[in-house]
Amino acid sequence: MGHRRHLEPSHSWRRSKKFDGCVSVDDGKITRLKSHDYHVLLQRVLPIALRGFLNKDVSLALIELGHFFQRLCCKTLRKDDLEQLERDIIIILCKLEMIFPPAFFDVMVHLVVHLPREAMYGGPVQYRWMYKIERFLCKLKRYVRNKARPEGSIAEGYIIDECLTFCSMYLTDIETRFNREHRNDNRSSSKDEHVLDIFSNNSRPFRDGIYDVIPKKDFDMAR
């Protein structure tokens, strides 16, 4: 429920579903996460969040597991580093076996042992991630209108999307996917004042900002 639990019991927002998110304070659970969300949680969040709440042996094993995936997902991989990861993950799993029950160790946990060797054969994992495919499958899932015939709904929706995309190539008076701005497009600034190198990259603020020109004396001192 989040901050809604502090509202009055008769407030209309207290039981409203439009505020429902992925975190449930009452149950202490996180739901509706994607695979990339677990990827970020394991590598970035859990190693920091678990330090003050678990025993040293438990937190150290989980931190080492997150560090293993963080090193495995680097942009540049070296063969000697992967060989070291292949030896380290066996020790990490042995530590986890002393903490978690046997039912925790299914085939997916055992798969981690083979990931360094797979990276040696296939190269960096960024080129073999499934995140883009999962997003595209989510897009196809939204095409389904008749649950009794999902394949036909997906095919029909995909054809309609392709036809609209083709027709929008010849439309100039309205906004289409060919002439609209990109989601992360940073418009260039028309101001001609001198700026430092670290501020030379253009960006688009979320709201109207207040611009201030650095005095020449301060600019010379900074250089």
TrEMBL record:
Q: Which domain of life is it from?
A: Eukaryota
Could you tell me which InterPro entries the record lists for this protein? DUF4218
Which stretches make up the DUF4218 domain? 72-184
PANTHER family in the record = DUF4218 DOMAIN-CONTAINING PROTEIN-RELATED, LEUCINE-RICH REPEAT DOMAIN, L DOMAIN-CONTAINING PROTEIN
What is this protein called in UniProt? DUF4218 domain-containing protein
What organism is the protein native to?
Answer: Solanum verrucosum
Phylogenetic classification of the source organism: Eukaryota, Viridiplantae, Streptophyta, Embryophyta, Tracheophyta
